[in-house]
Amino acid sequence: MVDADGFIACLPVTPLQPAFHPAVDDVIDLLYARLGAVVHSLYLYGSVAKGAAVAGVSDLDVCLITRRTLNAAEHDCLREIAARAQALHPVISKVDFDCGTLAEVLASENQFSWGYWLKHHCRCVAGEDLASRFPRFTPSRAIAVAVNGDFIPVLQGYLLRLAETSDGRQLKRAAARKLLRATNLLRRKEDNDWPETLEEYASRVVRRFPQQRQAIGWLLQQCHTPEDDTAHFTACLKALMRWLDEARR
Q1: Residue 4, pLDDT score
Q2: What confidence tens digit (pLDDT) does each residue in 185-233 have?
Q3: What is the residue-wise DSSP string for 84-145?
């Protein structure tokens, strides 16, 4: 979605849903208690940040910016914090942490990845709001590449993890969403729109590649309610990965 001036829309300024306040507050308190001064700032993204989360269904997505790279013990702390929050707050399905350092965020080569992400998708809940250091962005393929150009190795990682688990519903959903959003790599230089919802990503790619309507429809369904047949899911996902990798060239 773009605004009247042609800029990609930022998150609307809306209050957090009351049902999710305790979980958010608990995660913030735990992060500062366990990591202390290493924490620079904390952000929410996804449905909770938008005020559109569904109790018992939505993830709590947290972007953690630190003053230095976290060590192995600190990454273990994040897993413990996520497990505790999930156990204490059934209103969230799981907690995901997206981590980066202050130096990475402010590096000029990361303006289309971290800069865009913080400016347009994140809601600061603690610390300095780094989004204020970046201008609003206009639609561009450079952003699509910076955000989703890594879709092949990321999805390969999801598939490896999926092969090792008996309950891969969350992994399937995450993989499907990554691949659907990666279709933005197919945008042309003259394109001035910017998809926001999963449905917008799907309709956008189908308009340009109508022969992929059935496959993209399947992918969109997996984003919400993944099928149980892991072998079939894996085969279909790999086929779409190959198609997108070829189509983007």
Answers
A1: 87
A2: 999 989 999 999 999 999 999 999 999 999 999 999 999 999 999 999 9
A3: HHHHH-TTSS-EEEEEEEHHHHH-GGGIIIIIHHHHHH-EEEEE--GGGGS------HHHHH
Interatomic CA distance for residues 90 and 33, integer angstroms: 22
Closest CA to 205 of 222, 180, 173: 180
CB-based contacts of 147, cutoff 8 Å, min separation 6: 112, 113, 116, 117, 181, 184
The pTM score is: 0.91
**Tokens for 247?**
């189509």
What domains does the chain contain, in order, with CATH numbers? 18-138 (3.30.460.10), 145-247 (no CATH)
Give bridge partners of residue 97 from the DSSP assignment: 62
Mean pLDDT of 224-247: 97
User: Which residues are CB-neighbours of 232 under 8 A, at least 6 positions away?
Assistant: none
Under 8 Å between Cβ of 52 and 14: no
Taken as a whole, the chain contains a residue count of 249
CA dihedral 228, 231, 235, 241 (to 10 degrees): 60
Mean pLDDT for 123-130 is 97
